[in-house]
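Issue: ligand-bound run for zinc ion - logging full I/O for the record.

Environment: standard queue, default settings, no custom constraints.

Inputs:
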Amino acid sequence: MPDKANEERSEKRKQTIEEVRREQARREKGYRERALKLFPWVCARCGREFSGKNLRLLTVHHKDHNHDNNPPDGSNWELLCVYCHDNEHSRYLDAEWSDGPTPGGEKKPASTYKAFAGLDALLKDKKE
Ligand SMILES: [Zn+2]
Ligand SMILES: [Zn+2]
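Outputs:
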């Protein structure tokens, strides 16, 4: 197998991963903005209030842990501060909440990440 082909393949793979990440970030930004318009900026667990600079600590939790379930009325969303959000998820031991895939860490996000499920299939396909 010439090196050139290998290089091209891994380059392609990198691009695919990049695309999925971008798409994911775009989607996340979309529903976070919508959720922030719908709900008061208060953590639903600890009641902390957020504004301005610390607003980034307020995150959108999906009640059914499915990132793809984003009804426009916000019925699947809950605003949680990062601490409560962390807590919420450690109770369920899934990884819906994360800053994104950890490099090399391969801690598989829950199957709710449809985008990544698709990527898996795609990568498998390319394997020798
Ligand atoms: Zn909180
Ligand atoms: Zn969550």
